[in-house]
Every structure is written in structure tokens, then in C-alpha cells.
Amino acid sequence: MKQNQALTLAGTHLRKNITLFLACSSLLLTGCRRPSGFPEGEWIDLSYDLSAQTITWPTSEPFRLDTVSAGITEKGYYYSAYNFCASEHGGTHLDAPIHFAQNRKSVDQLSLNQLTGPAIKIDVSGRAAQNRDYQVRVADILNWEKEHGQIPDNSMVLLQTGYGQYWPNPLKYLGTEKRGTAGVQALRFPGLAPETAAWLIKNRRIKAIGIDTASIDYGQSQVYGSHITLMQQDIPAFENVANLEKVPVIGAQIIALPMKIKGGSGGPLRIVAFVPNTSQSD
């Protein structure tokens, strides 16, 4: 009897998630007008804009916008157009599995199903505030689950370190203003411990993982163990995610659509969260 009840409850949650995802897609396609029957709630932009102030990895090229035209043409109408140059891994972006795992998926090969769906958030900002080298531990996940239950299958895991408050100040956000190899050696910010990444792969079924720092591995990492562990299993990472303090610990639905670069190891990411009103999400 208990097993049947559990299956019924799981089926109900699955139907709710499918309905909400289809509604979210419909909302985007209709120009953000709320269609009839669409649940009331809030959209949260989790992406930083791209500009000359965008934080990039110390060895990456900064974002650049070059003007092609911006003004009144000889025929009397206004026309603006620009060329841009950007790193795959600058600003809010996605790391595709091939970034750290040979023969795994490139950014264009990730399915829409893997880039959309329910999310949970684990907040370690208190510990990270005391230690720039903090790495999210298995204990952090287990403590979260004691309060909220086991991470549901096919969830996205968002890690809030609190370092988003420092954007776009590179010294406070990255721990250094240096560029090049010297900048990489001086990086100081929190991340996910490799052993925690391995535990997640072994014990939970997740679609993707995101963090409000420049890397899923902490700044002083030398071998990028969390990247390797996750990406060998075709799990992408979202980095430099904005506004995580606005996302609830449970209940948000994520749409994370990167620039579709054929064969790319990643790309600029427009990621948003939809949080339905509590009364409609129960």
C-alpha cells in the first residue's frame, strides 16, 4: 500500500512539473504575456549582462562590443548593429561536459530536457563568508536533506556561496585583479569539493549543477576534480549564476539556454528561474 501511495505521489509531482514546464515554454514563446491558465508567480533573471565590466577567467579574453553602426543613416532612419567578441566561459555561462571530459557532450548536444526542470538550492554562504577557500561538503547536502527531504531525481542543484554580492568587482569576487597565469594562481573563491561531486554522482540523480562563483571547483584548485567527475557523467555546470539569494530552496523551475555553439565546450548562458505562488505550487 505504501509503495502504491509513493508511486501515485511521484506521478502527481511529475505531471505538475510537466505542466509547469509546458506553461513556462508557452510564456516565453508568447513574449512573456501570461497565457490563460498559466500559474501566477515570479520570473527571476539569473544571468549577468555582458559588457566591458564582465568578469572573465584571468586567461580568457574580455567581452568586447565593436560598433558597426549607431546613428541616422543617409536615408534618414536610425540603424544600430554591433560585432561582439566573447569567451565561451565569461560572465554567466555553461560548461558543457566536453570542457573537461573527452568525447562527452558539447554545448549543442545537450538536450532541452537536461537544461530545464526543477531546482533545489543549498545555501552555504555563512561558511563561505568565513573561508574564501570553502568547498561544499557532503555534510552540507545531508544537512539540507534533513530539513527538506532527499534531493528529487532529475533536479538541478544550485549552490549559493553569497559571492554574487561582489559582482562585478574582480578583487572581491575572484580574490584577485591579476590577469594571465598569475591571476589563475591567485584565485580565491568557494566551490564544490570533488568528493562531494563524486557522492552526488553515486547517490543522487541530478541534471545539472550551478554556482554563484567563477568555477564549480574552488579557486585554488589545481586539478579541477569536480569538473572532471561531473562532466565524465555528462553533467553540465552553470557558473557565475546571478541572484541566487532570490531563489527559494525548493519550488523553482529553471530554464537554462546557452548559446548553441556547434562543438563548443560551453557558451554564454541566459538562465532564468520561475517561482510559482506558494498557494498554486502545493
TrEMBL record:
InterPro entries (alphabetical): KFase/CYL, KFase_sf
Domain of life: Bacteria
Biological-process GO terms, alphabetical: L-tryptophan catabolic process to kynurenine
GO molecular function terms listed in the Swiss-Prot or TrEMBL record: arylformamidase activity
Pfam family, one: Cyclase
Protein's recorded name: Cyclase
Species per Swiss-Prot/TrEMBL record: Adhaeribacter arboris
Organism classification: Bacteria, Pseudomonadati, Bacteroidota, Cytophagia, Cytophagales
